[in-house]
Write a structure and sequence with these properties.
32 strands; 24-stranded antiparallel β-barrel; 1 helix; Immunoglobulin-like; mainly beta; 3 domains
């Protein structure tokens, strides 16, 4: 049944004259979901999308149409409003107006929750309502205010972000559906080789969980050391480690402890030769081997890691299996992500995507340039410095960039006005699941190019 529904949507999408259709479909035992999505991009700059997912909570549908109208950006259907690291889901009609450094969005319709997968997104509706989102950008940060009423629930949230060369602060606080909400983080980098970050996060997975973390790290050309602490559900966990690099070889040892459990050590060593990698790891008396190959059209990998599991508030050994394939001469791509827990339970995600081009859309080689002499560029890595290829970065609320194979991205702007920066985990093509460790909230485009350093942390 699932396969039939996915195939029906995938093969029903065709490239009409002058438009491009992006098609994605897949299945996930990680979240118990399956579905597909089609996005249409028109020469006028408008775009439309439709998604259908089968989820544990039942079928979910998503649809949207965004277009420009008399100087406004309008949207019919589903709209995601970004407030700091929080996403507000709305279905109905939204209209946005940007004047200088001020951005105002008004909406009326229904609000609810979102369900995101690499192969689609869909939404569940709760109550009808209306609201306003206002954002003001300044030279070193931003301020946002969100106010909405839906049913008997009230949202009144404020978000602010500020940064300079050494400090990066952002936070969101207020009422979310009649109850207190706070999400904030502070990072400090006194030198390019040292960094400290502290965060308090409110998460819904789907139950409400409060999560505190602190991390510190130092790095050099051949050696790096780190330590971190986590607290959730009244339970604390600590970890620390050292990693050494010498040419193509990398080795490290780490220590992990969760309250009420025995601490343990983990060690790993890896070697890289051009497109090939090989690795070996040891933890809790178990020895694991991995490696992989990465090319332009095919990549495969097996790796072991110890990750902090937020729902259980404890560290967990995990084996990751990844496979990516792109058919030469086409835009067809397929991906497989597998996660093997210590009890050898395999959960996986499989999805594929393709593009269908209309007769006037220009095909795969069509170049779309936003122009401008002012540049924002950066890199996206994990805590050990490895590139996170496929990470999605939303700049200035509307320009989305993806990290390349070396983790780099770049966007051009027509002026040097401060732009917002947001990591859009729902749009990642990177394998696995991630959360922010160090994520700037704003950036200042310059003619020489502003360099951003984004650090992510993998989660189970």
């Amino acid at each position: 049944m699932r396969a039939a529904l996915i195939a029906a949507l995938l093969f029903s999408a065709t490239g009409a004259q002058g438009q491009t259709v992006a098609i994605t479909g897949g299945d996930s035992t990680l979240d118990g979901a399956a579905g597909a999505q089609a996005n249409l991009f028109f020469p006028s700059g408008a775009d439309a999308g439709f998604g259908f997912l089968l989820t544990p909570a039942g079928p979910r549908v998503g649809f949207s149409y965004r277009f420009k109208w008399r100087g406004y950006q309008a949207a019919l259907g589903d709209q995601t409003l970004n407030l700091g690291q929080l996403q507000i889901i709305e279905r109905g009609f939204a209209i946005e107006r940007i004047v200088g450094k001020n951005d105002l969005t008004a909406f009326v319709g229904a609000v609810g929750d979102g369900f995101y997968e690499p192969f689609g997104r869909a939404f569940g509706l709760n109550t009808a309502g209306a609201g306003l989102l206002f954002t003001h950008l300044f030279s070193m940060g931003s301020f946002s205010s969100f106010n909405a009423v839906h049913g008997r629930r009230v949202d009144a949230l404020e978000a602010a972000a500020w940064h300079n060369r050494r400090w990066n602060l952002d936070g969101t606080a207020g009422l979310l559906e009649n109850r207190g909400f706070f999400d904030g983080r502070v990072s400090y980098s006194p030198r390019h080789w040292a960094a400290l970050s502290i965060a308090h996060q409110d998460r819904f997975i789907p139950q409400h969980v409060e999560f505190n973390s602190a991390q510190v790290g130092v790095t050099s050309a051949h050696l790096s050391a780190w330590a971190s602490g986590f607290e959730s559900r009244g339970q604390t966990s600590e970890a620390a480690g050292v990693t050494s690099r010498a040419g193509a070889l990398t080795g490290g040892v780490s220590w992990y402890k969760t309250e009420g459990q025995r601490p343990f050590l983990a060690a790993n060593v890896s070697a890289r030769l051009r497109s090939w990698t090989a690795s070996s790891s040891w933890a809790r008396g178990n020895v694991g081997f991995g490696g992989g190959y990465s090319g332009n059209y095919f990549s495969v990998g097996i790796s072991q890691a110890v990750l902090y599991n937020l729902p259980t508030a404890a560290f967990q050994q995990t084996t990751m299996l990844t496979l990516s394939l792109r058919i030469p001469g086409t835009d067809i791509a397929a991906n497989f992500i597998g996660s093997l827990d210590p009890l050898h339970h395999l959960r996986s995600e499989e999805y594929a995507s393709d593009y269908v081009y209309g007769r006037e859309s220009g095909g795969a080689d069509q170049a779309v340039s936003l122009g401008g002499k002012f540049i924002v560029r950066g890199t996206v890595t994990d805590a050990t410095g490895n590139a996170v290829q496929g990470a999605a970065i939303l700049l200035d609320h509307k320009r989305e960039a993806w990290a390349s194979q070396d983790g780099s991205f770049q966007e051009r702007f027509r002026n040097g006005k401060t732009v917002s920066v947001r990591i859009v985990f729902a749009d990642f093509t990177a394998t696995g699941r991630w959360t922010c460790a160090t994520c700037p909230a704003t950036a200042q485009p310059t003619k020489q190019g502003t360099d951003l350093k984004i650090i992510l942390r993998r989660t189970p």
